[in-house]
Amino acid sequence: MTSAGPPPGEPLGDLLRRLAPQVLGALMRRYGRFDACEDAVQEALLAAAAQWPAEGVPGNPYGWLVTVATRRFTDGVRSDAARRRREDADLLATPPSLLVAAAADHRAPGEHDDGLTLLFLCCHPSLSPATQIALTLRAVGGLGTAEIARAFLVPEATMAQRISRAKQTIRKAGARFEPPSPEERPERLRAVLHVLYLMFNEGYTVSAGFELQRHDLTADALRLTRLLHRLLPEDGEVAGLLALMLLTEARRDARTRPDGSLVPLPEQDRDRWDRALIAEGVALVTATLARTRALGPYQIQAAIAAVHDEAERAEDTDWPQVLALYELLERVEAGPMVTLGRAVAVAMVHGPARGLDVVAGLAADDRMARHHRLHSVRAHLLEMAGRRGESLEAYRTAARYATSVPEKRHLDARAGRLAAAAPVG
After folding, report:
1. How far is Cα 73 from Cα 193, in angstroms, rounded to an integer?
2. Rounded Cα gap, residues 351 and 11, in angstroms
3. Model confidence over 25-80: pLDDT tens digits?
4. Tens digits of per-residue pLDDT, 369-380?
5. Closest among 164, 168, 138, 132 to 150, alpha carbons compared
6. What is the dihedral of CA 200, 355, 419, 317, to 10 degrees?
7. Which among 206, 39, 177, 184 is positioned nearest to 116, based on CA atoms?
8. What does the CA dihedral 266, 246, 362, 414 come to, rounded to 10 degrees?
9. For labelling, which of 61, 296, 358, 372 has a CA lying 20 to 30 Å from the CA of 344?
10. Residue 209: helix, strand or coil by DSSP?
11. Containing H/E element for 16?
12. For residue 256, what are the β-bridge partners?
């Protein structure tokens, strides 16, 4: 029998990340213990990363990983003498089909459903958003604890404890390896999408530190969202989120100068935008909007991103369309950041004074009073209106509240240029 092997030329890391959720699903369906199964899969992945470069990738890497992970699982539970008999019975009950090579055209059992079920499990409502992201990266993304720790800028031991506590929390909550009920599914899917959205945003504009972007986080978010779209190809919001990521990621290389400083959207060299990603994103959101029965926030945000990306020059942007989309977005999912986006669109269509009126309405919002984005948008609109003295102070306030070093430097530079241009009144 011919064994199923990886696609020709697939890097080892990509292969292991792709197979990780499939192997975990196989163990979960057999044993149902998320914490022990996930630990066993991680050990199997480490063993593969150590052995395969020297010995070669086995003909059926999925079967190899399931075999090793099953052994690691039973080794672990056998260390507890009180559970020895039950776990030995579990091992004897393991289907032989999991331990032998599969046919070349064989698809891993439950491959379609397991990835989605794992996403739901990792985004369990008992976990915080940050923990949901970490657990998703490990169990579904196939990343090791050290890689996740680097993404979160914490020591590996800290991340290991965080993931361990998360798995204990899921166990105590009684979560099972099964899809949510039809009643729970819409809310649980929204949680999954929110986790992927947060993961991408943190990578695209790092909230704190010296780097503007974390390409590893955006890449992982895109990879997992592509997986989700393959599993749920008819879901409009899944397609909308993927399109939004593609259209946003397309601008990545133009967002920074060689020295790492930030380049705002109107000043970016659009020749450096990734046209293949833009074409893919535009096609995806166009098809989604044409067939959707429930227009959601990710679809609308993707449409806004498409308008920006399709403009050959900043001055070619269809701002009336952007404004109309922001107004629609506010009706679908209101929030201060949405209102801030609408304020910019209002200013571009009706003039900065009207935009400043919108911003003024946000000043009383406690969530925004000390947020640098509110003050940076206000500074920009004041500068557009020719009120340079007020704009200078607003830029300085925005820089004071910014936690990202590249954003802070950008805001300080804006303030510096205003201060140097001429005496302000």
Report:
1. 31
2. 52
3. 999 988 888 989 999 999 999 999 999 999 999 999 999 999 999 999 988 877 65
4. 888 999 999 999
5. 138
6. 60
7. 177
8. -30
9. 296
10. strand
11. helix 12-31
12. 262
